[in-house]
Fold this sequence. Notes:
Elements: H1 3-7, E1 27-31, E2 42-45, H2 48-54, H3 61-70, E3 79-83, E4 91-96, E5 107-112, E6 115-120, H4 127-142, E7 145-154, E8 160-162, E9 182-186, E10 196-202, E11 208-214, E12 220-222, E13 229-235, E14 244-249, E15 253-256, E16 263-267, E17 276-278, E18 283-287, H5 295-305, E19 311-314, H6 319-332, E20 335-340, H7 354-360, E21 366-370, E22 373-374, H8 381-389, H9 414-420, E23 433-437, E24 440-444, H10 454-477, H11 485-504, E25 515-518, H12 526-531, E26 537-540
Helix pairs in contact: 3-8, 5-6, 10-11
Amino acid sequence: MSLIDQIADxxxxxxxxxxxxxxxxxxxxxxxxxxxxxxxxVRSYGSLAALLTAGFLTSDPAYQMARTAFAQNPAPTRVKVxxxxxxxxxxxxxxxxxxxxxxxxxxxxxxxxxLTATFTSDATPTVAEVCTGLAxxxxxxxxVDVDAIIATGASTASIxxxxxxxxxxxxxxxxxxxxxxxxxxxxxxxxxxxxxxxVTGKDYAGATITETFAVATSTAANGVKYFSQVTQVExxxxxxxxxxxxxxxxxxxxxxxxSGTHVACTSAVDGLLHSYELVTGNVTLGDATAAxxxxxxxxxxxxxxxxxxxxxxxxxxxxAEILVAAxxxxxxxxxxxxxxxxxxxxxxxxxxxxxxxxxxxxxGYSLGFFYPAIAASDxxxxxxxxxKNLPTDPGSATLAFKTIAGVTRxxxxxAFIAAIITTPDSTGKNGNLYLDxxxxxxxxxxxxxxxxxxxxxxxxxxxxxxxxxxxxxVQLANGKVPFxxxxxxxxxxxxVASIKAGIKSQLFAASPVFTVxxxxxxxxxxxDRSARRFNGISYSAPLAGAILYTEAAGTAAI
Length: 558
């Protein structure tokens, strides 16, 4: 227990625990991709312009998460970005449904990094056939293509400055979205010399970038920078004209359908997220990314560097990572908002999905959304929910019926809704969804994994912190607080002030009337008086609650 906890200890009996620090309006976005390589691992930003100035790209998860948070009204005054230094390797499973008919062709379509991969089966379709075909399509779009930029390059005895007109590959000088890493492949000719090729082009944001590639016979030279377009290739003088080369793109994602049940898509670069979106309803998603060793240590290090935050959202939201972050958030009393695309959450017979596991663990600090897309630029729902909720007074607003600006609603079936959402008449997985309410998009119902309401959890956390701050203020404002009835009444009055503030924010109800009492000093123990410890304040305050479900009954008569 910290010193401040010993000086001002406040207990709140509710469904969930409480936490101890300020910063109830601030979210930490924990991400792998940041523009810095050293220095502070947690940095605060008050606008999107500030992120761009710091070097973030508009395609970065941190930027897109912050953009969604700042898009809300009212918007947070700042967000914090924390660097995850232990890099995950993203693995996503695309699972095709069994064909509707064993004698009719069927089309399966998904988007990877915004590129549409479509496979149409033959007239006698099987799941294994679809897995093989869909994987092949993804590899064509996202895999290695050694001659995609220049298909017929050659060495010369003079400097070559190759411009787009001479790029004869399939991609050539076209804009690549998403950007790709480049490669050169050289033949075995002795006309190649150990020199350096310089490539110029554009990055994600359209800024000019360059990268160098070492010439080496019978091998490939692989780049690490991401180009959205190649604009110039400069090749130094070589011994002769007999050498040939191709210039292409490296794999961004490798797809494997050999399981016969799903397509496993693995990122070629650790710490890099790729987006996945479903186009046809006969494909489902599952994020199989492992929780990298040391992920919890990452979170502890971020907290130690800057503890002044309350909300937490992640860039990568696999089941394994969510489970680690949820356990950490429970211990540290941080409000963890996550989103999952795992279709198992919508199956009531499955109890091993992430929502079921967090419910079983009775976690009071995890708010989970099912959202059927991964890392889509218009799909950062968890970050948006934090941006919507944290600027409000704690306890004053639910997380039900809230439109999240910048997030596209993606349809879910009635069966999924029934499996995920817990209502007064049904038992779900205590999850949340982004739904259509008569033409208006909204979150629902705003429930934590344990079954408590998000506004209650945050409100009671604020209350405990506020009472502790007022207790400390009493000590700081007085040269001495005497161990008398007048002295203890100062602390009783502090609790009264906090409850009244809670009534104003609609955390507590004004009726029935709350009570706060202080044990008379004459009834305290000599041991406590000797230790200068007063633990005789008790209170009872009714929560205001909220109405989400309404019924009306009556008679219509002529």
